[in-house]
Amino acid sequence: MALDEYRRKRDFTKTPEPAGDTTATARQAPARFFCVQKHLATALHYDFRIEHGGVLLSWAVPKGPSLDPATKRLAMHVEDHPMQYGEFEGVIPEGYGAGVVMLWDVGTWEPESDDVDAALEKGDLKIRLDGYKLKGSWVLVRTRGWGGRAGAEDDGRSWLLIKHKDEWAGDIDITEFAPNSVKSSGSFREILAQETPDVWVSNRNSTGDASMETLAGVLKKLDKFEPVEKPPVGSTTSPPQTTSAPRKATAKKAAATKTRPAARTRKKTSS
Ligand code: MN
Fold it and tell me: 91 C-alpha to center of ligand 1: Å?
């Protein structure tokens, strides 16, 4: 419509001027946003979101993205999120998603499929990411419910997020290698420790949903994912006692020689 007059005045078989594709220019000119929000809620997961049609299409990835093309990560398709949510990092005090949100990666994306809507409908969306942690070619592929069968509401929610083989693939565990925020560089603990963390108020009421948790309930799980670190050497917070130096040395030696106790402790706390 916007180019109607422009086109009416030209014969594109005779002029080198472009006819102009309003959909292409409107959609491709601004970079499309993507983000991954690490979310400690009822369970730890990574919310993978890509901008499309003015909203953030969203998948919850329990184990987070993997850079290894052989490792397919389950990605549950969840409801679209508003664009403003994409840069959020902070605390959801109550209701749906109560917990802590970390902006784990952010950047731009572009489709490798010609028609994004058709690719989504088909359940096979190839994308190229340009984030801090995630780059290169990926695919989101639906595992079942092809074509959206009627009467099976849950069908089609399960997708897989898979890295394609390219120069950005690798066997490094990116969730362990780069666990912290790209916004604040903080951990969950550090995000919580901010004097005034950003707060997102969920507009969905938690009443009557047993699966929803309070922030306090969620925070009890923090130790499992972010064990409290020993104070660094020379820390002023450690008590000024003469035995501190030998104690540290012993602890360091123990940590260097044994790995079993840590594993045992983890097992104990998670049961
Ligand atoms: Mn989430």
Answer: 12
